[in-house]
Amino acid sequence: MSTILWTCPNRTPYNDYFFSSLAKDLPHELSVIYFNEHIESHPWKVFNRPSYRSMVIPASLRNATGLLKELIRSKADAVVIAGWNYPGVMLLWLGCLLTRTPYAIWNDTPHSEDRPFWIRQMRRAYLFCLLRAATRVWGTGREALVRLKALGATSNRLQDLPYFVDLENLKRPTLLQNSEPNRPVRIISCGRLDNKQKGYDHAIQAIGLLRERGIADIHYLVIGNGKDRAALEELIVRMALDHTVTITGWMEYNDVLKHLTEADIFLHPSAFDPFAVAILEAMASGLIVVGSIDAMSAYNRIEHGKNGIILNTRTPQAIADALEQLLNIRDRWADMQAAARQTAEEWPVSRGIKIVSDFMSD
Question: Would you give the DSSP letter of residue 331?
């Protein structure tokens, strides 16, 4: 049986689901290497015992040879590299070249960051060589593929391989607005409480604008923790939204899914977001997503006005306008929610398994 060695920075519920599905349905032995045991920003405690072989090998400079040693020890037939910025990954890549082991790159949408000129040039040269020699380059969505090609990937090796969510686990039996017509509209957000990145301060201000416009039959639930929680709670008090906006703090994955199935609208007013899985989970749950165009999963999956709403700007005014527009067309919600679910069903995990299987068959 051939072996796939797959590197991944962090264990997450959605990575766990994908790797478990691969291990179950692929005729190959999957071995996953995580770089970190825990993620400080996402401290999940409840994980099922993995149904695939996994280990933790730090990829930092201090332990840079760990991945290379595992490649040699395992005699892997193929490697998938997720997380290219680590020193250990650079050595692993060189090991693939020296041993002529085919490898694929799996990456979300690359993002330009402010770096000194010489670091930018060195990084660009490294990524060009890394991507050009890869057997496959997998990006999470259209914009990821465009940017990966610009960095050096060849067109005939590029493929769309997004993150996957458990469609069956996220399916809800009924649309809540039909079963509970007199309850408040439930708007939900889920993510790290970082206002610069996620824009939850703008979202709360938008809820305040809606109330000023006489729209009071709403409740906004924000699930998450982070450095700006205290500032957001102060904003809620200052705007007298104590009974309209609730911040729960950190919540385990299954509890988040329960809240998704009880909501109507998912609000994601983020700045650049490489491929937010929360949007995929919301659409699979039949929620209408109001998402920023800078959130790549919203950009890839939402057809404006059909299965969700795209925010072209992230100001409180723009968010309030989008929500008010949505609240005024409640007769269309059932169609939009069904369309969101249908979009999610276009990406079952079997598509990902097929893509990986084809890679192993080359």
Answer: G
Amino acid letter, 130: L
CB atoms within 10 A of CB 350: 11
Apex 346 CA angle, 21 and 198, nearest 5: 85
Query: In the 8-state DSSP scheme, what is residue 155?
Result: G
pTM of the full predicted structure? Answer: 0.94
Domain boundaries, given as residue ranges, for the chain: 3-164+347-361, 167-345
Q: Evaluate whether the domain defined by 3-164+347-361 bears CATH number 3.40.190.10.
A: no
Residue 288 DSSP one-character state: E
pLDDT tens-digit readout, 253-306: 999 999 999 999 999 999 999 999 999 999 999 999 999 999 999 999 999 999
Least-confidence region, from 103-107, 182-186, 339-343: 182-186
Structure tokens at 10: 């962090």
Question: Which residue shows structure tokens 């385990």?
Answer: 252
Q: How far is 272 from 151, CA to CA, in rounded Å? A: 19
**Per-residue CA distances from 353 to 23, 291, 350 (Å):** 9, 28, 5
